[in-house]
Amino acid sequence: MSPPAGESPHWPAVGRTPRFRSPLLHAGIILGLIVIHFILPEYHNGNLARIMVLAVYAMGYNILFGYTGLLSLGHALFFAAGMYGLGLPMHLLGATPAPAFLGGLATALVVSAVIGFLALRTSGVAFMIVTLMFAQAGFLTVLLFGEYTRGDEGFVIQQAARQVAGIDLTDPSNRYFAALTLFGVCLLLIAWLVQTPFGRCLVAIRENEERARLLGYDVLAHKLGAVIISGTMSGAAGAAYALLFGYAGATFASVQYSILPLLWVLLGGAGTTIGPFIGTVFMFYLIDLASGVTSAYMLIAGLALVLLTIFAPQGLAGELRRRLMSWLP
To answer: What is the model's pTM?
Structure first.
């Protein structure tokens, strides 16, 4: 078989085709995060641990928005479901982290399945509003049961309880690698998912839902699957956040935490596997650096967001895909 025009006679070599470039890219990101842990100071290691957990939240959101084309303003509900699904059993019942984490995942899965079943009866702007209303209902529920959730004040998960198989997750290095493990699993899972027939169908629905339906795809079932996967992954991020950083509070169920993953995905590049991570890193450090310069740090962040929207409308990873890496999934 002759190689395509412009390729070397050794085609297909590892790393020269999209088949190999994508796995190498994602493995390289994970390896890079392992290496820089031993280079960066403790402050940035702590930041990166938090960023990786929040990036998982953004990756979950990206499945629904970036790949399926469904704009949700209610993802804080799923994040909070995972957070309280883990946090309350540990705080009130003395549950250990492993079963509590599974409880957080199960809570997020059930909540996302119910919300998806109800919200997908609508579409477009109505879907966005319905998800927002469900999230607000969840936020108010957290406040209503403040006797257990401690409302806005929140509650702390004791350090002694945050140990898994003898590993102390309050230790900065252990916390970093726990966050990296979750991030790596979710990144590789999404990289695989978008290449499957299910993932390609989600993209087809995003591009032309009616045509996908005419081709015989069960659009509603695929959308519901996307909501459940998205919500469960976001819940995993919420559970991990509570476990690794030892705090759960109503702030994480507020509208702000529904808008943040949208910003991270838009900045990084919707519909790209690495975009949510890039967007989360960019936004986190932009606010961190700007707050060290002025108390009006959101003004600087807002200006940077406007400039990025104008000059990189597809997000940072989207521009990379458009200009240099057309194979980027």
So the answer is: 0.91
